[in-house]
């Protein structure tokens, strides 16, 4: 989630746990702890692929944060003037303020390395967009009341309850959309294909499904309010003929570990050189994928890995129009919103009638 939401979450948790005893201090310390894991963003690994794939790494590890919470508990017991707060209460305070950060991040598409340093892919079960006002606002109101009144517990706890209820609703919405998606995929023989289902920006009523099958990837928009209207399926080329060349590079393998099969490959001319580019299809929206990286340069008949990868500029053509049309699509499935309206010519393989 965004840094504001994470700070608000830490503040609300801090108030709910120790607000009665520490008042405003519990909220402020909780906000600082809630922000702490995201400070890894200031680390420059000297390479664009490394910077993206290492983010939400060691600083989001449940192992690392549990050890940090234990250390802070020991320091608080020794140094804090509030001697009546038990070690268990301090451990709960520090542990929840820190650990809720990566757990919330794991509910977004990007994924979070909660099991670092184990060699497993980032955990991701997306039920909420990286910015969602209905998660953030209850937390902000709760901590705002606490800071104004000095009563650090009751209002933050209520804000947490409302934000938690919204996440439960998001989980339920995802189950409903999954059920509507299944027969459409089964009809095309895609029920066993890798899929990613995630909410579109700022809501949990409209969901984007991305399904990968060989050289193709399929895009669908499925709404909670769609009723019996089946989703349309748009099929795009994935550039799988370049996948083997990409996986021969260290950065290509790293991206495959990070994004799984949800990568598109293409050859572009960049700075006068034929360049192999990989794009993460999970993040953004068709036509507006922000994470694309150069991996290799054509050298005769072979691809030579780049010395340092770059994150390529994201397209911005029509992004305001796309958001406006997405907002309208939330309430009604007709007329259909075609993702191909925003994708560069040449990638579309098959569009349904009306697109």
TrEMBL record:
Domain of life: Bacteria
The entry's keywords: Membrane, Transmembrane, Transmembrane helix
InterPro entries noted in UniProt: Transcription_regulator (IPR053170), YdjM-like (IPR007404)
Transmembrane segments annotated in the record for this chain: 87-104, 124-148, 160-177
Name this protein carries in UniProt: Inner membrane protein
High-level lineage: Bacteria, Pseudomonadati, Pseudomonadota, Gammaproteobacteria, Oceanospirillales
């Amino acid at each position: 989630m965004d840094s504001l939401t994470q700070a608000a979450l830490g503040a609300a948790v801090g108030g709910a746990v120790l607000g009665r005893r520490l008042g405003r201090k519990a909220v402020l310390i909780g906000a600082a702890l809630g922000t702490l894991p995201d400070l890894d963003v200031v680390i420059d690994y000297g390479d664009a692929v490394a910077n993206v794939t290492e983010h939400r790494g060691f600083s989001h590890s449940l192992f690392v944060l549990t050890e940090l919470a234990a250390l802070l508990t020991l320091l608080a017991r020794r140094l804090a003037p509030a001697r009546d707060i038990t070690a268990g209460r301090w451990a709960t305070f520090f542990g929840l303020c820190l650990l809720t950060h990566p757990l919330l991040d794991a509910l977004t598409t990007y994924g979070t390395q909660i099991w670092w340093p184990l060699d497993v892919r980032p955990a991701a079960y997306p039920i909420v967009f990286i910015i969602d006002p209905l998660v953030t606002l209850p937390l902000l109101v709760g901590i705002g009341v606490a800071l104004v009144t000095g009563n650090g517990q009751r209002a933050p706890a209520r804000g947490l309850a409302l934000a938690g209820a919204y996440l439960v609703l998001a989980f339920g919405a995802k189950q409903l959309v999954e059920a509507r998606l299944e027969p459409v995929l089964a009809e095309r023989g895609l029920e066993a294909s890798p899929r990613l289902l995630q909410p579109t920006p700022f809501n949990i009523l409209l969901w984007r499904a991305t399904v990968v099958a060989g050289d193709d990837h399929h895009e669908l928009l499925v709404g909670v309010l769609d009723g019996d209207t089946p989703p349309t399926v748009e099929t795009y080329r994935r550039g799988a003929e370049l996948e083997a060349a990409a996986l021969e590079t260290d950065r290509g393998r790293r991206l495959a570990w990070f994004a799984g099969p949800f990568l598109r490959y293409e050859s572009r001319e960049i700075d006068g050189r034929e360049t192999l580019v990989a794009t993460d299809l999970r993040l953004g929206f068709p036509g507006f994928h922000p994470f694309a990286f150069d991996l290799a340069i054509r050298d005769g008949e072979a691809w030579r890995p780049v010395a340092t990868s770059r994150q390529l500029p994201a397209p911005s053509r029509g992004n305001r129009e796309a958001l406006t049309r997405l907002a309208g699509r939330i309430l009604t499935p007709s007329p259909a919103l075609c993702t191909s309206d925003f994708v560069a010519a040449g990638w579309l393989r098959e569009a349904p009638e009306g697109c």
